[in-house]
Structure formats: C-alpha cells, structure tokens
Automatic annotation (TrEMBL):
This is ABC-type multidrug transport system, permease component. Residues 170-395 form the ABC transmembrane type-2 domain. Belongs to the ABC-2 integral membrane protein family. It comes from Clostridium pasteurianum DSM 525 = ATCC 6013. Keywords: Cell membrane, Membrane, Transmembrane, Transmembrane helix, Transport. Gene3D superfamilies: abc type-2 transporter like domain.
C-alpha cells in the first residue's frame, strides 16, 4: 500500500506541471519528427520518375546510316521522356546546354557515313548540360549502343570481305547474315528473377520512433531530478519517518515513471498515426515494445537516482549523454548515411536498441525476432532496477 501511495503522490506531483510536460514530452517530439522527416523527404523517399527533357539533334551527315537513330529517339517509348529538337548547326549549343535549355545534344559528324563506308569506326558526339544527371546518361547509353551496333556490322563485313575478297559476294553474304545478327542482338541471355521489394522506412517512419525515444529519456531525467530535490529538501527523510520503507519509496517512484512513460508513448503513437499517418507496423507487437521501452526508462531513472547526488551535475551530464546517444542513433539525420565508425558506436546506445524494436516492427519482422531483443533488454533492465534497490536499501 505504501508503494501505491508513493506512486499516486508522484503522479500528482507530475500533474502539477502537466501543461509543460504535454508540450515537452508529446508536442515537441511530434513537431521534431514531422519537421526532420520532411527535411529528409527527398533523400528517404526520392521521386524516381523521369520528367520529359529536351535533346538537341544535330545531323550534319543526313545519311541513311544516321536516320535510324532519330527514329529510335522518336519511338513510342522514348518519346514519352525525350523531346527531340532537330537543329541545323552547332551555333549556341554550348550556351544552351549551360543554360539548361537542352539536357543533351547529339552531334552526328559530316563524315559519319563515309567513315562507315571506309571501314572506319562510327562515332557520334554526345554533349551534356552540367545538370544532365541520369537523363544525360540515358541519351549517352542509347547513342553508345547504336554506334556499337554499326561498328559490329562493320567488323562482320570486314571479316567477310577479307576472306572472300569479292565485293559482290561479300554484299550477298552480309545481307544473308544481317538478320541473324539482329536476331542475336535482340535475344536475351539473362534470366530475370523477380526480387521482393526492399524493406525501407519512409520519411515519416524514420524519425518518429527516434524522437519518441530521445524525449522519453528526459522523462527519466525529470523524475530523477524530482527525487534528488526531495532528498535535498528533506522530503525523503520525512517519508521514511512515516514507516514507509526505502524499497516502497523506490518502487513507487519507478512505477510512476513506468506509467508516465507508457502514457507518453501511447499518446505520441496515436497523434503520429492520426495526424501524419505514420505506420508503426503490427499494433499487437507494439504492446510488448512499449512496455519494454517503459521498463528501460524506469531502469535508467533508477540508475540516475542512485548514481547522482547533485541536481545540477545530473542535469548537465545526462543531458549531454542523451544528446550524444540521440545524435549517434540517428535522431537528427538518417543513420544509414553515417560513417561506419558512427554506426558501430550507435550499437552502444540505449536509443539504438529501443529504436531497433520500433523499426523492426515497422518493417514487418516477426514477433519471434522482436522477442529476442525484448527478452535481453528486459533482463538487463531488471538487473539494473534490482541493483538500484540493493543500493537504495543499504545506503540511505
């Protein structure tokens, strides 16, 4: 009963500043998760569609050998993304590329067909604007494949001519072989296997659990500070004089921390789901995850209660540690983009392991996998709480 009494009194004390705590533990993490999610939206959820872009086509040869390339670029599929513009000269093409008027320019030289006729390598110049990116690569690859096709035909013709040494016979044999070459080019030698879509967190999911975890750490801080202040003001001594045992006080405080943390999580998840549509995964799995999270916060509070004596020292040291752990675990930017050593360091933070539970559930991992992490974290938390109880009982 004494434990329940301490628990109720702790809740009443917490409710005195409930408006401040609603902002700090609910509204603030919600705002930060929404803000950082949108900041990194283009990185985490990039637009993978290609807008239609302008390509300059300058055919200075105007021969039958160059015409098929234009037909390819004006085909049904490529015309959806490529708007081909025929130009008569190279005038101002460089300035137009720099200005972004054209994504790329295809320049077919005057000697293009004559080079092919003289058994020389066919080449077409592709100029790209500074911002061409993947669009420029698309144009370059199309031109490269086209030139490779022509050069292969040239090589085949050359070999036949070298062996037969008769132009008429070579032409006849080359015409007979050409359909075989084209059929061989169109034939696929690759076996395609459909792979499952990669499991990735979207921009809404990336920061929501991280911010929830970071701000829940400050619940541990505020509650530990409350205990230290009660100890400094003599409130704890007065409580002990009423036949309340040290363990009743200790577990009553931790029960309050557990309850406050659990309510914060439920409210944050509800607000995030309702207002910005964050998908936290299987709702049933969230129950043991949140309980585990609340137990960990309680264990951290227990640790702070027994390790620190001074409120100012506690505030400075733990605030610094919480900020460092949050940075390394990806609260302010996606951890996947961190250097390797930073990702390794994050494994030594509480944030990482709690976040691992939430993100694993978001990605659809089984409860069997989650249970392994939950079991380890609950055992460690229980050990910390019990060691804290032993220290409280024998020191104060």
């Amino acid at each position: 009963m004494k434990t329940i009494s301490i628990f109720m009194n702790s809740l009443k004390l917490f409710l005195v500043n409930i408006k401040v705590y609603i902002f700090v533990f609910l509204i603030a993490p919600f705002i930060f998760s929404f803000m950082y999610g949108n900041m990194y939206k283009k990185i985490l959820d990039p637009d993978r569609t290609i807008d239609k872009f302008q390509v300059a086509y300058i055919d200075m040869d105007k021969s039958p050998e160059s015409k098929p390339l234009e037909q390819i670029l004006r085909g049904d599929k490529l015309s959806k993304i490529v708007n081909l513009n025929n130009l008569s000269s190279l005038d101002n093409i460089n300035s137009d590329l720099i200005k972004g008027n054209y994504t790329a320019a295809i320049v077919i030289p005057k000697d293009f067909s004559s080079n092919i006729g003289n058994n020389k390598e066919a080449s077409i110049q592709v100029l790209q604007s500074p911002s061409a990116g993947v669009k420029g690569e698309i144009v370059y690859d199309i031109v490269k494949v086209y030139c490779s096709y022509l050069n292969m035909n040239r090589s085949v013709y050359s070999v036949i001519m070298k062996n037969l040494k008769d132009e008429v016979a070579t032409e006849k044999m080359f015409k007979d072989i050409t359909p075989l070459i084209e059929a061989n080019l169109s034939k696929t030698y690759v076996t395609y296997t459909s792979l499952p879509k990669a499991k990735l967190l979207n921009y809404k999911q990336q920061f929501a659990p991280n911010m929830l975890i970071m701000f829940s750490l400050f619940i541990a801080l505020t509650q530990a500070i409350t205990v230290l202040k009660e100890r400094e003001e003599g409130t704890v001594s007065r409580i002990y004089s009423t036949a309340t045992s040290k363990l009743s006080f200790y577990f009553g405080k931790l029960l309050a921390v557990f309850s406050i943390s659990l309510v914060q999580m439920i409210c944050f998840l509800a607000v995030s789901i309702l207002f910005i549509g964050v998908n936290f995964g299987n709702y049933l799995n969230l129950i043991p995850i949140m309980i585990t999270h609340a137990v960990i916060i309680s264990a951290i509070t227990a640790l702070l209660m027994v390790l620190f004596r001074n409120v100012n020292v506690l505030s400075v040291v733990f605030s610094f540690l919480a900020a460092i752990m949050s940075i390394f675990s990806g609260s302010f930017s996606p951890a996947d983009y961190y250097p390797e050593f930073m990702r390794r360091i994050s494994h030594f933070t509480v944030n990482y392991w709690i976040n691992n539970l939430y993100t694993s559930n978001m990605l659809g991992d089984s409860f069997a996998y989650l249970f392994q992490i939950i079991a380890v974290m609950l055992v460690i938390s229980a050990m910390v709480i019990l060691l804290g109880a032993v220290k409280i009982k024998h020191e104060y």
